[in-house]
Design a protein that fits this description.
This protein has about 210 residues and is an alpha/beta fold. Helices cover about 50% and strands about 10% of the residues. It has 9 helices and 5 strands. The chain has helices spanning about 15-25, 35-40, 45-55, 70-75, 80-105, 145-150, 155-165, 170-175, 185-205, and strands at about 5-10, 30, 115-120, 135-140, 180. It has a 5-stranded parallel beta sheet. The two termini are about 15 Å apart.
Length: about 210
């Protein structure tokens, strides 16, 4: 059985992509969390965890539980472009390969959803896997407005700026998108765009 119509959803931090993915789930889409897949491939004893430890230190793993100390790993790669690039070369192919398996499993489920939505925060690093998606959807929002929203949610402005520096720009995302949702107003206005997209795609049979 074929996989459901698959959306890769992307956007910068505080752009509103989580609002979009939750609304798609409410409408009937199956929602995939790449963070959960990342945790799976880095589970105790996994080959990928072994590669990460070989690159960044065996002390990253708790001797009693075998669990990865994600905070310690982040401290070793954050702010070091070479270290971050190495970690992504180890992690991203394994994450995307597992995603391909998961999408096939969803397609074989007795009650396959019409749509699957996958939040892909670092779409530029997953560019070679874009053929897994039927459509790339991007949520855009000016950086200043995103910073304002993030700070209101409790994020430190410096943390926000550091994260933005490691993410693709809205210009890059739009250039690689099939659908662009502009999040310049209220949450209700963003959800209305999602609902309109859902109605149009479902009317044409997810083709």
């Amino acid at each position: 059985m074929a996989a459901p119509y698959t959306i890769f959803l992307s956007g910068g931090i505080a752009s509103g992509k989580s609002t979009v993915s939750r609304r798609l789930e409410e409408l009937g889409a199956w929602r995939c969390d790449l963070d959960a897949i990342s945790r799976e491939i880095l589970s105790p004893g996994s080959a990928v965890l072994g590669e990460v430890c070989a690159a960044f230190g065996d002390d990253l793993v708790d001797a009693a539980t075998g669990e990865l100390d994600r905070g310690l790993l982040a401290s070793r790669v954050f702010g070091d472009p070479d270290a971050l690039a190495l970690l992504e070369r180890i992690e991203v192919p394994a994450i995307m390969d597992r995603l391909a398996q998961v999408l096939c499993e969803v397609g074989c489920a007795p009650s396959m959803p019409p749509v699957s939505v996958v939040e892909v925060q670092i779409l530029d690093r997953a560019e070679q896997w874009l053929d897994l998606a039927d459509e790339v959807m991007v949520v855009t929002c000016p950086v200043d407005l995103r910073r304002e929203r993030a700070v209101l949610r409790g994020m430190d402005p410096a943390d926000f700026d550091a994260r933005v520096a490691h993410q693709p720009t809205d210009e890059w995302l739009v250039a690689h998108a099939d659908t662009v949702l502009e999040n310049l107003g209220t949450t209700e206005e963003l959800i209305a765009q999602v609902d309109a997209w859902w109605e149009e795609r479902s009317a044409r049979g997810w083709a």
